[in-house]
């Protein structure tokens, strides 16, 4: 019995597909199949049911799976312990980030790479809800996410930006004469927003639901720059962080939203208790040293 056989078996069980598993472990599909067949012959039992469209565990496979995971975790723990005692940081880091922000994540990752060149780093871009799922599931070691006032359960966070969320309109828009509006003023008006799943959109949807209405989203885009351009053309009120909107005074009029005030936080997040690998702990430590809170008005 070999560790790679257990790794292939666990990956196929999780992916429910030999093809997806082979892509994940970077091995040709026939190689994955052959190693699992070899494992099954050694055990004298089939671990996987290959008869359906999706690969499923047999009863024996269900019984073996937790032990296979434990064996792989134990080996990873041995390697991590040796590296840590030797003062080395190796391995792999999976980092996630929301689409647009002012956090110097490239600088953080570049400095980390300079200090620990043997660590392989991958970066994934997604909406906050997807990144949170990745953190909870253990697929991501850390991520830049957009949050409201509450910290999601099971996570630790380092807040790196905290500022008001505002309405931004063209200078000839009917709301442009108002420096401050209530959230209810936006009821029934065409709004321009990031898509569902983003932190800023979640803040908007939650606040509107508390006020008793559903926001009328006329345009959605994942890039705040596009939202600003649409608002500048008079197509509605864009919901944006204050600093982003205020940086475009020629195109946009910034309107404070009050009663209730909306705020958005950007945070560097990781699983509560800290990452399990030395590389993950080293990244969190460096983030604590280099990323600070930037509060808005």
UniProtKB/TrEMBL annotation:
For molecular function, the Gene Ontology terms on record are: DNA binding; DNA-binding transcription factor activity
Q: Which Pfam families match?
A: HTH_1, LysR_substrate
UniProt keyword annotation of S-adenosyl-L-methionine present: no
The residue ranges of the HTH lysR-type domain are: 1-58
Domain of life, per lineage = Bacteria
Q: Which PROSITE patterns match?
A: HTH_LYSR
Q: Which UniProt keywords apply?
A: DNA-binding, Transcription, Transcription regulation
Question: Does the record carry DNA-binding as a key word?
Answer: yes
InterPro entries, A to Z: LysR_HTH_N, LysR_subst-bd, WH-like_DNA-bd_sf, WH_DNA-bd_sf
What SUPFAM superfamilies is this protein classified in? Periplasmic binding protein-like II (SSF53850), Winged helix' DNA-binding domain (SSF46785)
Q: Which family does it belong to?
A: Belongs to the LysR transcriptional regulatory family.
Protein name (record): DNA-binding transcriptional LysR family regulator
Tell me which species this is from. Kitasatospora kifunensis (Streptomyces kifunensis)
């Amino acid at each position: 019995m070999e560790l790679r056989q257990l790794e292939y078996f666990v990956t196929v069980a999780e992916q429910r597909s030999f093809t997806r598993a082979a892509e994940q472990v970077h091995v040709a599909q026939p190689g994955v199949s052959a190693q699992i067949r070899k494992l099954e012959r050694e055990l004298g039992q089939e671990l996987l049911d290959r008869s359906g469209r999706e690969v499923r565990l047999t009863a024996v496979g269900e019984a073996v799976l937790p032990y296979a995971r434990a064996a792989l975790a134990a080996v990873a723990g041995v390697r991590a312990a040796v590296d840590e005692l030797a003062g080395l940081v190796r391995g792999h880091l999976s980092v996630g980030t929301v689409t647009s922000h002012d956090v110097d994540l490239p600088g953080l990752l570049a400095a980390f790479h300079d200090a620990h060149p043997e660590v392989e780093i991958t970066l994934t871009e997604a909406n906050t809800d997807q990144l949170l799922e990745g953190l909870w599931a253990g697929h991501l070691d850390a991520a830049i996410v957009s949050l409201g006032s509450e910290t999601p359960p099971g996570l630790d966070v380092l807040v790196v930006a905290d500022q008001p969320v505002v309405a931004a309109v063209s200078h000839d828009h009917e709301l442009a004469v108002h420096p401050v509006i209530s959230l209810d003023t936006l009821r029934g008006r065409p709004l321009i927003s990031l898509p569902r799943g983003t932190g800023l959109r979640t803040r908007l949807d939650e606040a509107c639901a508390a006020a008793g209405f559903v926001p009328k989203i006329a345009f959605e885009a994942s890039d705040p720059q596009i939202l600003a351009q649409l608002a500048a053309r008079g197509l509605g009120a864009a919901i944006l962080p204050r600093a982003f909107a205020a940086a475009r005074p020629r195109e946009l009029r910034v309107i404070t939203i009050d009663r209730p005030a909306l705020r958005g936080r950007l945070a560097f997040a990781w699983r509560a208790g800290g990452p399990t690998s030395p590389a993950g702990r080293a990244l969190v430590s460096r983030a604590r040293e280099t990323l600070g809170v930037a509060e808005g008005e």
